[in-house]
Write a structure and sequence with these properties.
About 45% of the residues lie in helices and about 15% in strands. It folds into two domains: about 50 residues; about 60 residues, no CATH class. It has four helices and three strands. The protein is of the alpha+beta class and about 150 residues long. A three-stranded antiparallel beta sheet has the order 1-2-3.
């Protein structure tokens, strides 16, 4: 689902939730039957439909994801300190990799899990993945069994 469609869906659910709250307030404010029996029945059926379609209980939006925390490892990187200043709207963190090298990484990339190692370790891991894929596509000749004659 696209971001625009998701935002439109949330907006519609919030509007429906406000409508349900208004209906509940109206139901509570109406005097007891028989004075407003038809109106009360209409309000009750609207509330039943809202519950049936899952509109009556709209969960609150999820909290924004938490950013990196100093000392808490993310993959093989451990954020040490936030680098002061923000360039082009991107906060950066100074991180120490398990191999001992340090790297400067954007906070959003850490939070999303896009960067989990220093460039040297990431390149080594990528090389291993590519070699494994190459071996899977092109097995060594001694792995291929000769067909019986």
């Amino acid at each position: 689902m696209s971001r625009r469609a998701e935002a439109e869906r949330r907006r519609a659910l919030r509007a429906a939730a406000r409508l349900v709250e208004g209906l509940e307030a109206l139901r509570d404010a109406l005097p007891a039957p028989p004075a407003y029996a038809a109106t009360r029945a209409a309000v009750e059926s609207a509330l039943d439909a809202a519950v049936r379609y899952g509109i009556a209980a709209v969960p609150p939006p999820p909290p924004p994801p938490a950013g990196p925390t100093a000392g808490v490892p993310i993959g093989s990187l451990t954020p040490l300190e936030r680098i002061p200043g923000v360039k082009h709207g991107h906060a950066k963190w100074l991180c120490r990799c398990a191999c001992g090298k340090s790297a400067t990484v954007r906070a959003t990339l850490l939070r999303r899990g896009k960067v989990r190692a220093c460039p040297a370790c990431a390149n080594a891991a990528k090389g291993e993945r590519m070699a494994r894929a190459h071996r899977a596509r092109n097995p060594p000749a001694h792995w291929i069994e000769d067909e019986p004659a």
